[in-house]
Amino acid sequence: MTTVVPLADPRPAYVPAIEPAPILRVDLGAIRSNYLEVRRRYRGRVLSAVVKSNAYGLGLEPVVAALSAAGCRVFWVNDLAEASRLRSIAPQAEIYALMGLGGHHARDFEAIGAIPALAGLDEVEHCARHALVSERRAPVAVQIDTGLGRLGLSDQELAFIESRPDILDRLDIRLWVSHLAAYNLPDDPDNFDQRRRLSHWAFRLPPAPISLAASSCIFMTSDWHFDVARVGSALFGVQTSIVWQDGLIPCYELSAPVIRITDFPAGRRLGYRGVTELKRQSRIATVAIGYASGLPQRFAEYGSARLAGFPAPLVGGIAMNLLMLDVTDVPESILRGNIRAVFLDRDQPVEVLADGLVCAPNLLLTQIGAGTAKYYVEE
After folding, report:
1. In Å, how far are 75, 87, 260 from 91, measured between CA atoms?
2. Whole-angstrom Cα distance, residue 294 to residue 40?
3. Mean of the pLDDT values across residues 234-260?
């Protein structure tokens, strides 16, 4: 029997083998194992966890609980709303919001003990004004744009605040934060330029710990690690570099029930607009999963499915809630009773599909996590 935990319910529960819906099975033990593996490799001071976007679609609350049990005490979320959710389950955690103030007031973050990673000069000035009125320094992290271009202070803005001690003295700067643009290409020259620029400004500005390393950086040499690392994708066993990152375990398994098996003659066309013409007499299984569950429609081109380990090609395209598999070559004994087709797991990792679709693996993980019921296991 497998012990599982439904989303937002901390009590163990049993999921029948024929749960009549798609299921994203999340192995919390694998997540903890990945965190400990990365911590073993990290040479900085603090290994924090990035659990933004509902823990990459896998469920903020159970994932944070698992990481807290593994010893993680510092977390990164998207915004104030996620920070509030995290605070309710991790009252002692140190929480950073990657999107900065996000239109909120600095006092809103102080009310829940969260720290905004300020995204621009306007937010820096806002927090300085708030500190002046409240008569206490505002706890913040400050993002530095060293080359990615999305968020953070530019060289000109950094030079401005360097010349304004009246602004800097009002801020309790917990971290200087930046992110590599070519994070998946360890030897890219731009990475070295970004590291140099970050070190340059951290030396000129008030002293505070530096955070540059994300998941891929931790698998690089220790001179990339700095003081605080932010591990996200690696927690879930997702590869983030062209250099293989060993020791990581995919924590997910996407499966769905077979609800019908039918024989069709050669020449029969299947799916919308008859997208597939059968070349032989075939046995076709209809499976209760589709793009509403986050499965891309082009999964039919680049993805694969298995029934009890036997491959089953997709035919007929992917609809909102249904797809079809050619199970002609699957042994008859496998097709009896209640069976499930597996679409993603450790043997069919998300990176393979992402490579075919030319997208980020996390795009698939977050959209499947958002569209599919999740169950949590300990293995």
Report:
1. 12, 5, 48
2. 34
3. 95
User: Looking at residues 175-195, what average pLDDT do you find?
Assistant: 97
CB 80 within 8 A of CB 115: no
> By the 8 A CB rule, do 137 and 103 touch?
no
Query: What is the token pair recorded at 263?
Result: 């024989």
**pLDDT band at residue 147 under the 50/70/90 scheme:** very high
Q: Which two tokens stand for residue 331?
A: 């042994």
* pLDDT, position 19: 64
Q: Which CATH class is domain 252-377?
A: mainly beta
Which residues are designated catalytic? Answer: 52, 272
Listed residue (45, 41, 38) closest to 67, CA to CA:
38
Cα 125 from Cα 161, distance rounded (Å)? 9
Helices 80-89 & 60-69 angle (0-180, nearest 10): 50
Q: Answer whether 120's CB lies under 8 Å from 157's CB.
A: yes
What's the gap between Cα 235 and its chain centre? Answer: 8
Instruction: For 292-341, write each residue's pLDDT tens digit.
Output: 999 999 998 988 899 999 999 999 999 999 999 999 999 999 998 889 99
- 78 pLDDT exceeds 80? yes
Positive or negative: CA dihedral 96, 101, 107, 108: negative
CA distance 144 to 163: 16
Per 3-state DSSP, the chain is made up of helix, strand and coil in percentages (nearest 5) of 35, 25, 40
Q: Taking a C-beta distance cutoff of 8 angstroms, is the pair 267, 113 a contact?
A: no
For 42-236, the fitting CATH number among 3.20.20.10, 1.10.10.10, 3.40.50.40, 3.30.450.20 is 3.20.20.10
Q: Are 316 and 270 in contact (CB under 8 A)?
A: yes
Report the distance separating Cα 346 and Cα 306, nearest Å: 12
DSSP three-state, residue 33: helix
Q: Is 11 a residue whose pLDDT tops 80?
A: no
Which residue ranges make up each domain of the chain?
42-236, 252-377
Q: How far apart are CA 317 and CA 323, in angstroms?
A: 7
- One-letter identity of residue 216: S
pLDDT per residue as tens digits for the range 86-142: 999 999 999 999 999 999 999 999 999 999 999 999 999 999 999 999 999 999 999
- For the stretch 336-377, pLDDT in tens is 888 999 999 999 999 999 999 999 999 999 999 999 999 999
